[in-house]
Design goal:
This protein has about 180 residues and is an all-alpha fold. About 40% of the residues lie in helices and about 0% in strands. It folds into two domains: about 100 residues, no CATH class; about 30 residues. Strands 1-2 form a two-stranded antiparallel sheet. It is elongated.
Length: about 180
């Protein structure tokens, strides 16, 4: 039987148990409990990996700081530890390049500290994490007028396409007659 992989996350049908305190996302990644699956340890790790990537010019280390440990975060951590962290700076067991998603999630705090130490050793710095606080919009009733600028891009382009179709049909009807 051949192995089937999804675009992100664990192979289809595989049970990829996340460490205690983490939850498995619908994609098979490991994240924090609650809405958005953001795990602070993962955010710190991803921020440190990004800082090291900018410092050494390695684009593979550019990961999204989303607080979820997935395949891109695992690949970036493995690359950072094998190519950019000195042999005396991290235990050899972590520098094999074969850390799994579960291992990275379980050791996110330690790995983030090791990579952050490497950034500091190289004279770089890590930007502080910015917490985005979303303010809920005031509820609107159906009678509230909507400005054209407030339409979602898909709706706006749909209206443009509909107008172009109507104009083309009208021109065709006039020319055919």
């Amino acid at each position: 039987m051949s192995e089937v992989f999804s675009i992100s996350g664990a192979p289809l049908g595989a049970t990829n148990a996340c460490p205690t305190g983490w939850v498995q996302t619908p994609n098979g990644n490991c994240g924090g409990p609650g809405a958005g699956y953001r795990a602070p340890a993962a955010e710190v790790l991803q921020n440190a990996v990004n800082a090291l990537g900018k410092l050494v010019g390695d684009k593979v280390l550019a990961v999204t700081i989303d607080g979820v440990v997935g395949p891109l975060t695992v690949a970036a951590v493995n690359r950072a530890l094998t190519r950019h962290v000195g042999s005396g700076q991290a235990p050899q067991a972590l520098r094999t390049g074969s850390l799994t998603l579960v291992q990275v999630a379980q050791n996110a705090t330690q790995l983030g500290g090791l990579i952050a130490a490497e950034v500091g050793r190289r004279g770089g710095s890590i930007a502080p994490l910015v917490k985005v606080v979303r303010t809920p919009l005031a509820p609107r009733n159906d009678a509230t007028p909507v400005e054209i600028g407030e339409l979602a891009p898909q709706v706006g382009w749909s209206l443009v396409g509909l107008n172009l179709t109507a104009a083309a049909f009208g021109a065709y009807s006039i020319l055919k007659a």
